[in-house]
Specification:
alpha+beta, 3-stranded antiparallel beta sheet
Length: about 350
């Protein structure tokens, strides 16, 4: 007989909301900023064979990110680093029980530790007034991370430079093993793709008229993972098929960007996808899907992310021709409900 926990399907959360990209109180950009750590961005445009030049330029301007190997954590609390790169921010550490006790810094038990606390979250507010150089708080944190329990890891770093003069990550970490990386970008054209019929004003869908937002989300997952929609009885992998009603488009353009992509660049891409409908197009809607790092210690609004079980955290925009949008926000087994 299987244990009870093995017989239950993992808990997942999917939040859906509707808005308009040009409404004064639209929060679509705020939702992107609330989800800071993204590793893959994909957009799908039905009835599109070639991207407009402005979209190509936006993709080319996604920017570099950096891999720094064997970086001591104490360097991230040094005021030289904070002054150069951090206007407002926190250092969030998710550590096991032994490391937490050795560091001796104040934290809180992980929400997902179970009855016996085995993991803690330490939050260091880098730009607070009481964290200035030579303050007791700063000196204690620096001592804990540099001398009491030196920690070093490989880090991915990304920085949004608004054009101000100053240090760059490459020059600042020149004494470390730092490497500039470019996101991997792939383009593909999907032929004769079955697409759900959607109505922007109806999240729930109606039989024989339109599909629901949940059906669209499931279908999109299949498309992005290249799952066949043929529903062939001979298939050992999948009998999934496109929800009904649906329509076949001759071609659809799919672009996937993989790397460390910061919210500001995603917002720029989202804006250009909205502008795609500025001229008449055959497509009635398009999608933008963003996946967060599975092992990030936080997801939305710095809420703790239960990365040790599943790790899913993603969102998806469906942008319609009239600039209505649907927003899906999804997390896995151990997470708070997205905002």
């Amino acid at each position: 007989m299987l244990p009870a926990q093995l017989g239950r399907a993992p808990r997942h959360l999917l939040v859906c909301e509707r808005g308009h990209a040009r409404h004064p109180r639209s929060r679509h950009a705020a939702h992107v900023r609330d989800h800071a750590y993204s590793c893959r961005v994909s957009f799908l445009i039905p009835e599109c064979g070639m991207l407009p030049e402005v979209l190509k330029s936006t993709i080319a301007d996604i920017g570099e990110y950096y891999l720094v190997r064997n970086l001591p954590i104490h360097e991230l609390v040094a005021h030289e680093f904070i002054d150069a790169f951090v206007k407002k921010g926190k250092l969030i550490l998710s550590v096991d029980k032994d490391t937490y006790e050795e560091l001796g810094l104040q934290g809180r038990p992980s929400r997902y530790s179970g009855k016996k606390v085995m993991r803690y979250v330490i939050t260091i507010h880098l730009t607070d007034a009481d964290f200035h150089p030579e303050s007791k708080k700063h000196n204690r944190v620096l001592w804990a991370l540099k001398e009491k329990k030196p920690l070093e890891f490989d880090f991915l770093l990304a920085w949004y430079n608004t054009g101000a003069e100053g240090s760059t990550l490459m020059s600042y970490f020149s004494k470390n093993q730092i490497q500039a990386l470019k996101p991997k970008i792939t383009f593909s054209t999907l032929r004769d793709l079955q697409c759900p019929v959607l109505q922007s004003n109806d999240l729930q869908g109606k039989p024989e008229e339109s599909c629901s937002t949940e059906e669209l989300f499931e279908w999109l997952g299949a498309v992005l993972n290249q799952v066949s929609l043929d529903n062939k009885s001979s298939s050992f992998l999948s009998t999934y098929c496109c929800p009904e009603p649906n329509t076949v488009v001759e071609k659809a353009f799919l672009c996937t960007i993989t790397g460390f992509i910061i919210p500001e660049k995603i917002i720029q891409l989202l804006e250009q996808l909205c502008c795609y409908f500025g001229e008449p197009k055959l497509a009635y809607w398009l999608t933008l899907t963003v996946h967060g790092f599975a092992d990030s210690p936080v997801s939305w609004r710095e809420s703790e992310h239960g990365f040790h079980k599943g790790g899913e955290n993603l969102y998806n925009f469906v942008i319609f021709r009239n600039l209505d949008y649907w927003l899906h926000m999804a997390v896995g087994a151990h997470d708070d409900c997205p905002p």
